[in-house]
Specification:
By secondary structure, the protein is an alpha+beta fold. The chain is built from five helices and five strands. A three-stranded mixed sheet has the order 3-5-4, with helices on both faces. A hairpin with a 5-residue loop joins strand 4 and strand 5 (124-128). Helix 1 crosses helix 5 (139-152). It is globular and about 45 Å long. 24% of the residues are buried. The model has no long low-confidence stretch (mean pLDDT 93).
Amino acid sequence: MDFYYPNRTNDFWKVCGLIFLGDKDALYLPDKKSFDLQTIKTLMEEKGIALNDTGRRVRRLKGNASDKYLEIVEPVPLHDLLAHMPRCRAVATTGEKAAGVIAELTGTPPPKMGEMVTAPDGLEIWRMPSTSRAYPLAVEKKADYYAEMFRHLGII
């Protein structure tokens, strides 16, 4: 899948399936081997959720997907992106590395997992649990954290 969180072992789309459709497998294609990209894009648009990386240019220091070995060479131009989304009032990160990048860009402390801080301009900065399977938390528990944020934001 040429989109965010394409790896079937990542829980992000399972979390979204649970929260928005009541089924962790709802965003899979019938063969259960890949995600339904069109349904995912439609759902994200309907819910007003935008996705973006926190790094514009990154360097992998080892040949794996661990953020521990990820160097952010150039962070995302967050304020430029937000200028194109005037109704955006919150940014959520999925994991510690991304939380640190966004905290640096917004001049806020990194929030604790499952919590948020407010930037001087009023933007809410949330840190959600990583949806990587390497993060030892059941998909249902991860969904609980995300659902709490979405409820707070009026998305559900």
